[in-house]
């Protein structure tokens, strides 16, 4: 029996049951999205993935669409070569062969505030702001900020979590370029900066280094 036929039978069986739980409906939704993508491939048609996800999620009364990483994880092994290139999020991120990983240093008061007592309008965050757990130049609601906060600004965890996420989204992570964000990294003590850079490289190599020179 073909994969599409198996999916159709399973969806037909479950759709007759009015007591389907949300996780089950999410599984059905993901299966149907994959089925639609395979059908479109066979017919040589282009598909708007976002519209497809929204339509099928609404069909099964889900308030949110399934995550791309969950769809990718559910793609059968025999269909990965067909679907993964279509599902890869923002392929331009790694089109050059280099994956960009943005990380944030810990929140730190800008020296300008210490010297003048004034905060620049274009720096909304920092320890003195309403967003006190954010870095100086950010509010804490940006994607990179939220990843950093979840990792408690640990550079090792920020790097590993982001690389794992990029891999799940189908990107190559053989070559990495770091962007250190936050706005006050160069104002932090040398010891912290060395610790930060050391852990970025250790997160890539899996090695536990004792100095920046060893890590690099």
Automatic annotation (TrEMBL):
Residue stretches spanning the membrane: none
CC annotations in GO: cytoplasm; elongator holoenzyme complex; nucleus
Stored InterPro entries: ELP3, ELP3-like_N
Domain ELP3-like N-terminal: residue ranges: 27-95
UniProt key word Iron: yes
Molecular function terms, GO-annotated: 4 iron, 4 sulfur cluster binding; metal ion binding
Family matches, as Pfam families: ELP3_N
Keywords assigned: 4Fe-4S, Iron, Iron-sulfur, Metal-binding, S-adenosyl-L-methionine
GO biological process: tRNA wobble base 5-methoxycarbonylmethyl-2-thiouridinylation
Entry-linked PANTHER family: ELONGATOR COMPLEX PROTEIN 3, HISTONE ACETYLTRANSFERASE-RELATED
Protein name: ELP3-like N-terminal domain-containing protein
Species of provenance: Ladona fulva (Scarce chaser dragonfly)
Lineage: Eukaryota, Metazoa, Ecdysozoa, Arthropoda, Hexapoda
